[in-house]
Design goal:
CATH class of the largest domain: Alpha Beta
Oligomer: single chain
Bound molecules: pyridoxal-5'-phosphate
Number of strands: 10
Number of helices: 12
Shape: globular
CATH architecture of the largest domain: 3-Layer(aba) Sandwich
Radius of gyration: 19 Å
Largest sheet: 6 strands, mixed
Number of domains: 2
Structural class: alpha/beta
Length: 308
């Protein structure tokens, strides 16, 4: 196993005056402190997958990601810690001949072998070359031919085992009840799926989509992960699609200003693409009266800010 720096992760109150006036409490579940190189939800989701890889006798992990993928860096470090090889297939063949950015350099420094794919090759390899992003005919076969036997982790690392790993987050929140909403950002949906599955009855989960155009698709993904991991669906969660702020990776000036105010007030550095978007969304929804008075929100701090 990849040793955590801190487990269970701390829970801290950060209700401000505006939230208090609306009758809302806000707590942070500091999963960003789990591990310095495999932070937050990446550690939660990789744990059971790494255990399965070792148990099944795999010696190599293969996965996918964009030029700044936290998932790629996390897999590189986690694989190395367990003595496994790792291969990262990176979206964008134009990156191959350029100097590595800090993120790809970190993945390589941890021992990951990188290969750069064109957009089309990437869609095929990730199994989304079919119509509407459905699996294409020959994704996995192509990978096995090129890279030999390896455990293939999906983009973002979200599979059934990842959801089971993320279900440990609510299990560490021992006081949850009917007034509780546990909240997380949504990229591929694995973290939300796990949180919802791990809640006690009465409590609910809220995901905030950080990408544009995910309505329907992301709900289908979470339901698919629930069926794969638990053999059933859950009715205790929903996804907000109104706070992606322009789309994945977009950080508008209002969001940057919100993050700076929050950091100043609460002394917690915020990762911008996911965590700041989640917290800004929660403040916005609370101000709009979306939560009944007496609601207690627990926001999962799923990751760390980029190094500067
Ligand atoms: C990868 C990542 C997410 C996305 O989680 P999913 O399980 O893919 O929805 C959320 N927050 C942070 C900080 C991340 O790095």
């Amino acid at each position: 196993m990849l040793e955590p720096a801190l487990l269970p992760t701390p829970l801290v109150d950060c209700t401000d005056e505006a939230l208090a006036r609306a009758g809302i409490e806000l707590r942070l579940k500091r999963d960003d402190l789990l591990h310095p190189a495999v932070p937050g939800n990446k550690w939660r989701k990789l744990g059971p997958n790494l255990a399965a890889a070792v148990e099944q006798g795999h010696t190599r992990l293969l996965t996918f990601g964009g030029a700044y993928s936290t998932h790629l860096r996390a897999v590189a470090v986690a694989a190395a810690a367990l003595g496994l090889e790792s291969v990262g297939l990176v979206r964008g063949d134009e990156l191959a001949g350029r100097p590595r950015n800090w993120s790809l350099r970190a993945a390589e420094a941890a021992g990951m072998e990188l290969a750069f794919l064109s957009r089309t090759e990437y869609r095929e390899a990730t199994g989304r070359s079919g119509a509407e992003g459905t699996p294409g005919p020959d994704g996995p076969a192509v990978l096995q031919r090129r890279w030999g036997p390896c455990l293939v982790l999906p983009e973002g690392g979200s599979n059934a085992l990842a959801a089971i790993g993320a279900a440990a987050i609510p299990a560490e929140l021992t006081d949850l009840g009917a007034r509780d909403v546990v909240c997380c950002p949504v990229g591929t949906g694995g973290t939300l799926a796990g949180i919802a599955a791990g809640l006690p009855s009465g409590a609910r989960a809220l995901g905030v989509a950080v990408l544009r155009g995910g309505a329907g698709y992301l709900e289908d993904e979470v339901a698919r992960l629930h069926r794969a991991a638990y053999g059933r669906e859950f009715g205790n969660w929903r996804i907000d699609h109104a706070h992606h702020g322009g789309g994945y990776g977009k950080v508008r000036p209002e969001l940057a200003a919100f993050a700076e105010r929050f950091e100043h007030r609460h002394g917690v550095a915020l990762e911008r693409r996911y965590v700041a978007k989640l917290l800004a969304a929660l403040h916005d929804l609370a101000a709009a009266g979306e939560f009944p008075r007496g609601t207690r929100l627990t926001a999962v701090v799923t990751g760390l800010p980029d190094p500067v």
